[in-house]
Design brief:
By secondary structure, the protein is an all-alpha fold. It has helices at about 5-25, 30-50. It has one domain (about 5-60). The chain is elongated.
Length: about 70
């Protein structure tokens, strides 16, 4: 896997995941929407640590500086 996520993209993904988790634990979101958003937050965290986004790959997108 060739890395295709830059630093700014990583930071943004982690911040969004933290906000989603915060909304969940503050009971602002619940039910099906909360589950879907928590899964999305998990994917954001995972892709941030791997520095690879599978959705960027087919389109040739890379936010990493060359």
């Amino acid at each position: 896997m060739k890395k295709n996520i830059g630093t700014a993209d990583k930071i943004l993904r982690i911040l969004v995941a933290i906000v989603i988790a915060g909304l969940y634990f503050a009971n602002i979101i619940s039910g099906t929407v909360a589950i879907i958003l928590l899964i999305l937050a998990g994917v954001f965290i995972l892709t941030s640590f791997m520095s690879f986004c599978p959705l960027y790959y087919p389109f040739g997108i890379s936010t990493k500086k060359k």
